[in-house]
Amino acid sequence: MLAYIVVSLNFFWPWDIFTPGIDRKIMGGPCYCLKFSVEHLLWRGEISIYELNDLTSIMTNQEIAKVLDHIAKILSIKGENPFKVRAYSKASQVIGSLPYQLSSLEDKAKITELPGIGQGIAKKLIELTETGKLDYYEDIKKSEYAPLTEFLDIPGMGPRHARLVYDELGINNLDELRRAAEQGRLRHLHGLGQKLESNILQGIRQVQRYKERYPLAFIYPRAQEILEQMKKVKQIEMITLAGSLRRMKETIADVDILASSNAPEKVMAAFVSLPQAKRIIAKGKTKSSIVTGEGFQVDLRVVPPESYGAASHYFTGSKAHNIKVRSLGMKKGLKINEYGVFRKERQIAGRTEEEIFNAVDLPYIPPELREDAGEVEAGLEGKLPDLVALQDIKGDLHVHSNWTDGNNSIEEMAVAARELGYEYLAICDHSLGLSVARGLTPERLTRQAGEISGLNKKLKDFRVLSGIEVDIKANGELDLAEDDLRSLDIVVAAVHSKFKLSEGEMTKRLIRAIENPVVHIIAHPTGRLIGKREPYPVDMDKVLDACKANGKVLELNAHPERLDLSDLNCRKAQDKGVLIAISTDAHADSQLELMKFGVATARRGWIEPRSVINTLPLSRLLTRLNR
Q1: What is the mean pLDDT of each run of 10 residues along the chain (627 residues)?
Q2: Which of 212, 345, 364 is closest to 291 using CA atoms?
Q3: Distance CA 119, CA 106 (A)
Q4: Given phi > 0 = left and psi -120 to 50 = alpha, else beta, which region is 420?
Q5: φ/ψ of residue 330, rounded to 5
């Protein structure tokens, strides 16, 4: 809870901004609490000058994880002990993936029971949860190297390079770094060179391109939270997300919400009073905009119930899709806009989206398809795909455990998967080549398979599959011998290094792995990290053809940083008859929930259940894997 002390205020305050009855006294008088946020009171004009005293600030897990990650980055640039850096980085991952809020933990001593959390970091977590601040963090942020952490988002630029450009050139922000790269001033620094300078410049442009956009998985739960709060407003009849978020695009600029109501003023008053509303940009009768504490904008539009379907269609978009639908209406003598479907001046439809589509002889088109990518034509021909849904998924075929860089034990991952209604889960920890993740040696892999076998004997109606995520070397060979892999239920192969090979070399590398008889699935096939690393160059058509010829599967990695395959490559895969596996690459049990983002990307790629291998029940899956 935030407590505010207002020291300068307007002379007459309307009593409706207070709630009395608090059993406290201040300077001999009664204490009253403000009903509204200070930002809202500023907007109302009730406060002219004020000071805030943040007495108790409750931090979310995401905010705590961000602090820990920032500490890790600052320490890495300062050249601190790598083990200390990894400890903070690991703690950030653990806290960010917890299924409950750390601040709600009554017995703070249990923090030390979390995987990878030692006594030192536990004390800092307690300080963060109890005070909302961390003295150590405030001190370390004063370091001259603290501003350099944004450099670490640039592909190929590590802590050593970040410190080098600052120590040698005094550069400590992206704009200065970009100008230096454009002027050719980086190539002369020790260990950089012209090629890395070019890569840095390309990376800066990539980072800046995504700077004002947020990953889908960051925005979606926060938007859902706002949506659920607004559903409690009794004057709202219907409410939905809109815009690119409803279409489940990979990155989102801002959040659009649409509601129907006959009392829009009361809806708007509730919206701008939300606890997330840290700043009010605008408040009107039919549209208001706020900025959240995390920096993204949320727009709410309110329309009459008779226009809700038309507005839902219009504000969901895309613009190109809407134009296509409106043009169909014009051919029928209809006008279609955000208010409804009109024949001359008479509204004939608009209460539901189905009415909009029916007016132009279309079936309902799911939001994920509304990109003018052939969905209107397919609808007219009765050829819209029967899209895969989350409930179609029978298991996850690529997750990690604490045998390598995961947070949870195999049993904990299995229990979480079973609670999601899955039939199976494939443990695919890293192979020896990824030493930073404590990759498995052949001996450890054998021991892990033994643990999995023992676990399967006590689990009911559920199967843990023994697997591995094996590295694909630059020449296409695997970093474990085929004899070590044949006994596993599933082998997932992936590229984790040497991303700068030419397109021809990378394509041959992947195809050689695809042709290896022990490999079942190629993980995150283009290697992209959204907003951080572009896909490596590869001829996807040739890769798909090789998968088809060898009966291999391509992964759609549901992790929000990857979503790889992209929607476009998903559609290519289905058109060529190549199966995909929608897997989370989860490193914690809570990350199994990321499956919904993989499914959303698959739906954007027109994927049907028949094209997803993990929609198969266990018996058919094992037959398909030849195990």
Answers
A1: 36 36 34 41 35 47 86 92 88 79 77 83 88 90 90 84 91 88 88 84 75 82 93 96 96 95 95 92 94 90 97 96 96 96 95 97 98 97 97 98 92 96 97 77 95 94 96 96 94 94 97 97 94 88 97 96 94 98 95 96 98 97 87
A2: 212
A3: 17
A4: alpha
A5: -60, -35
The DSSP secondary-structure symbol of 60 reads P
End-to-end, the C-alpha distance of the chain in Å comes to 55
In this structure, what token pair is assigned to residue 357? Answer: 């589509």
Contacts 24+ apart (CB under 8 A), 48-54: 48/8, 48/9, 48/10, 49/7, 49/8, 49/9, 50/4, 50/6, 50/7, 50/8, 50/9, 51/5, 51/6, 51/7, 51/8, 52/4, 52/5, 53/3, 53/4, 53/5, 54/2, 54/3, 54/132
Give the single-character DSSP code of 533. Answer: B
Amino acid making up residue 349: A
Backbone phi, psi, residue 283, to 5° = -140, 115
Instruction: Tell me the per-residue pLDDT of 156-206, one tens digit each, with 9 for 90 and over.
Output: 788 999 999 899 999 988 888 988 888 989 888 887 888 888 888 888 877
Interatomic CA distance for residues 514 and 548, integer angstroms: 10
Tell me how crowded residue 388 is: count the other CB atoms within 10 A of its CB.
Answer: 25
Secondary structure class of 255 (helix, strand, coil):
strand
Interstrand relation of 553-557 and 580-583 (parallel, antiparallel or unpaired): parallel
Instruction: List the beta strands (DSSP E) in 319-372.
Output: 335-337, 340-343, 346-349
Q: Which domains, and CATH codes, for the chain?
A: 1-56 (no CATH), 61-140 (1.10.150.110), 146-210 (1.10.150.20), 215-380 (3.30.460.10), 390-624 (3.20.20.140)
Residue 149 and residue 85: Cα distance in Å, rounded? 13
User: Could you give the angle at the alpha carbon of 254 between the alpha carbons of 250 and 257, nearest 5°?
Assistant: 105
Q: How does pLDDT run across 44-56, given as a tens digit for each residue?
A: 333 333 233 333 3
For residue 455, the surrounding DSSP H or E stretch is: helix 442-458
The crossing angle, in degrees rounded to 10, of helices 119-131 and 82-96 is: 50
CA atoms within 13 A on the CB side of 169: 23
Buried b (16+ CB within 10 A) or exposed e, 25-34: eeeeeeebeb
Q: Write down the pTM of the prediction.
A: 0.76
What's the CA gap between 14 and 6, in Å, rounded?
15
Contact 102, 129 (CB under 8 A): yes
290 SS3 class: strand
Closest CA to 543 of 500, 588, 512, 581: 512
CB contact at 8 A, 365 and 357? yes
Q: Rounded to whole angstroms, how far apart are CA atoms 465 and 614? A: 13
Distance CA 259, CA 242 (A): 10
Nearest to residue 571, comparing CAs of 623, 611, 525, 614? Answer: 611
The burial of 379, by beta-carbon neighbours within 10 Å (0-12 exposed, 13-18 middle, 19 or more buried), is given as: buried
Written as six digits, the tokens of 306 are: 């008779």
